[in-house]
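pasting input
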Amino acid sequence: MNGMSNGFDDFYAIIPAGGTGTRLWPLSRESKPKFLFDLLGQGRTLIQTTFDRLAAICGIDHVCVSTGERHVAAVREQLPELSAEHIFAEPSPRDSTAAIALATAVLMRRHGDDIIVGSFAADHVIRGKLAFIEAVRQAVQTARVGYVTTIGIAASRPSTAFGYIHEGGSLAAQIPDAPDATLVERFVEKPNAVTAQAYLSTGEYRWNAGMFVMRASVLMDHLHKEKPRLARAIDAIADAIVDDDRAYEAAVETARAQGENPRESVHREDFRAHRDAAMAKHWPSIEKIAFDYAVAEPLSVEGGVAMIPGDFGWDDIGDFNSVAALLPSVDERNNKVLGSLDDVSTLDSAGDVIVAGGGRTIALLGVNDMVVVDTADALLVAPRARSQEVKAMVKHLAESGADELL
Amino acid sequence: MNGMSNGFDDFYAIIPAGGTGTRLWPLSRESKPKFLFDLLGQGRTLIQTTFDRLAAICGIDHVCVSTGERHVAAVREQLPELSAEHIFAEPSPRDSTAAIALATAVLMRRHGDDIIVGSFAADHVIRGKLAFIEAVRQAVQTARVGYVTTIGIAASRPSTAFGYIHEGGSLAAQIPDAPDATLVERFVEKPNAVTAQAYLSTGEYRWNAGMFVMRASVLMDHLHKEKPRLARAIDAIADAIVDDDRAYEAAVETARAQGENPRESVHREDFRAHRDAAMAKHWPSIEKIAFDYAVAEPLSVEGGVAMIPGDFGWDDIGDFNSVAALLPSVDERNNKVLGSLDDVSTLDSAGDVIVAGGGRTIALLGVNDMVVVDTADALLVAPRARSQEVKAMVKHLAESGADELL
């Protein structure tokens, strides 16, 4: 570290906030995805805790959010500290490569080509805050050397819900400031149970939580080489956004010159003409491709991806079973409740996950290991063991035309 | 039969409409008991079908209802054909002996001491209407001879939810118009499963559905002998009610004499001063005792009770399992729905009983043989096999102070 720097001065965090969280239906919906919920009952939503965690590392001004246009209002309401220029609104979902690339391209134009960017999902839960900071610190150091650096989560069970990272040789000699860095041998898709167990027994596999830290220029150079159409579209939109930046700054100057208070008379969100035009022109044709496929996997084959082990408690709360694992029991029978305990009455029932979100009393008699999710307009009942299949239930509802419930 | 008589001219039907139906919570409540519900989804509530069934036998003017004061408005709304003088409102529950005796005592005063009365619960389901009429016909003939006559239901399974009637010798020789009449050997309480099975294998036991037909005078004489305090209190209230009758009739005469239309200016329900005073004085101290204990069992020991076999389909819909047995399946997986089918979506779920009464979508994934009852303010989930224990759930809620849900 040099001077007053904490080692993160050139680091910017991007929070792609997308994905409905279909397996958490009927709590999470297309119109209100899971990152907007306080799934741990701790008073802060998932995107709020994600923002808090990253702002603690690099400061509020170094955190931005990419999300769908329909969620911008909710994000701004939940994150009043986030200024307008740090929200990138997507007219339609174009998957994570476009989301991360657009934020990266704009940040480069604003802060220079040498910055480091990191992408962290809006809906993950991390408990070991200091261990997380240390992992990100080593990831930033490793990224400086040129690696796209992921944080590999300690696999605590043979999960079939996550992709895995196969660890390669140590990079400690090459990067003294990141003693835990290794190469990534390869990324592997969600395995079946037998394969997952085999991975675990080698001790060489970690979960891929989709966290990536890299030099902005490394990412954009790779995209220009491998996905040139996507990269050019992103550049055009980023250029338009900084054109809006300049128009805004000019308006601020003018207001000041006229003796006005620009905070009152000039609003950042009103300067979006260039961006809107560029979005309309380029966004719809952008390839929908996940960051893993477009960047991490191909670069790992070339030895361009590194990994820092993340041994903090982590979960992506994919389904109600995950929610249950993170909630404290409300009684000695291992029942878990999200919402008001006053709304729940259990008799001879154990191991249930109850979401009391409908304002009514939920009475369970002799119900074991079930998920009961009550909301104002929809109720779900399912065994905990079938939590992953809630996605199929939502598909079933979609097929029967219940669009208003999705 | 003589002249235009159908054999029921001197017969009056009493419908005691009491009992919350606790095992049908949260559908049925203290404030809206099960007899007010259309549990079969056929467009008529239980008390409506009971009324229809009895009115078809003895005419609308020969049917009366005894119910709690808080349910009078709902009963009148559901049975607009029922005139005000045919509703006996109870200030507080005093069990079936008082309910039947009061209606009987008033009917005797209005229609003479020789009438036959029959009591039929408001919340039973009977499918074989002609077989029911024939059973009641024979019961009336048997009652004329002086027997308190019950209708014994063919026991189709070794139920532990009903009391049983042990059949005695035939009375056919004594009562030619009631060829199926037998004496009742004795009444037995709800048995355990082994005993119930033993009863069934003898072929001599039938279910006690609490239907009793008897000469009004036989009932009142018995009560005056065995329960004199209760009988005197009932007589005093019945006297007061006929005093109100006379005050009403006098007012009608006066209105007519003054050229008014008494249907517009005189209302039966306004004439209740005598009744109210007598109720206030006598009702609270009346012994709470079931008709079976006060009348049927002691008289059966003296050989005073007869039985007509009832081989019509019958159920008392005590719990959600009973509801399920009477509802058609909505799919090939034996799911049963009470309420709007549009509100129910099942996936890989079988044998469920779903009550859609909350106006929201109920989604069941991998849920088998469960009861799910959704209402505006309370939701119940329980295995079908534990339907009888819903009563315990309600007790649990009562103990936790959720009085507004009972």
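fyi Residues 329-405 of chain A form one domain.
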